[in-house]
Specification:
Layout lengths: L1 H12 L12 E11 L14 E3 L2 E11 L4 E8 L2 E7 L3 E9 L2 E7 L7 E19 L1 H5 L2 E6 L2 E13 L4 E10 L2 E8 L2 E8 L3 E10 L1
Antiparallel strand pairs: 1-3, 1-14, 2-5, 3-4, 4-7, 5-6, 6-8, 7-8, 8-10, 9-12, 10-11, 11-14, 12-13
């Protein structure tokens, strides 16, 4: 009886095993994603300064699959991001919406029994721009017919899962995306195109469930 008693005490002191992120798991995460562009462009029309784009926060969604206990893939999606576009000294001139789905290959560190699973990922991003238009300030400056070219580029990520139990987890991740676009518009009776880099950082905090 004494042996059984001490065995029960010892078992109670052993941390619970989460069986985290193992081969065959489908992982769905949902939370908030904030896009922070690092905008860079040549001076617009020679003297108006560079374009800049505002930050925006939307609902982020990811769908992942674990091929092994350490290797996975993940697809990032989100509700459409809306950015205010401006020029230095002129304020906001336009707005545009974009969807930036990205497909990543991932490597998870540590073992499947660990509750904390950091990971790195690399892959490809496609950014779809739509509903781009100048506001009244832009139109008063003589600008019209705004369009932004869709973009393919490299994407990288770093993140960490904390497994609450075998099914639920919380996640924090950061993404970097190579997004280059051609911003085209009419001014002074001519069509102008400005090659612009957005190259945003994306910060996501989410809750996940494993199937």
């Amino acid at each position: 009886m004494k042996a059984a008693y001490w065995a029960l005490i010892a078992a109670a002191m052993v941390p619970a095993v989460a069986n985290a992120n193992q081969a065959g798991d489908v992982i769905v995460r949902a939370g908030v994603a904030t896009v922070r562009p690092s905008t860079n462009s040549p001076s617009v029309l020679g003297s108006l300064g560079s374009f800049h784009a505002s930050n925006n926060t939307q609902m982020g969604l990811t769908l992942g699959y674990m091929w092994t206990d350490n290797i996975g893939t993940e697809l990032l999606a989100a509700t459409p991001f809306r950015h205010k576009i401006g020029l230095n000294g002129m304020g906001t001139l336009a707005t545009s919406r974009q969807l930036p789905p990205a497909l990543m290959a991932q490597y998870y560190f540590r073992s499947k029994e660990d509750k904390i699973r950091p990971y790195l990922g690399a892959g490809v991003n496609y950014t779809y721009f739509y509903n781009s238009h100048f506001n009244q300030t832009g139109r008063d400056a003589g600008l019209s017919d705004l369009s932004m070219k869709h973009s393919w580029g490299f994407a990288a990520q770093a993140g960490v899962d904390y497994n609450i139990d075998p099914d639920w987890l919380v996640n924090a991740s950061v993404w970097w995306m190579d997004i280059d676009t051609d911003v085209s518009f009419n001014a002074g009776g001519e069509r102008h195109t400005v090659s612009t880099q957005l190259n945003p950082w994306v910060f996501m905090f989410s809750v996940g469930y494993k199937f």
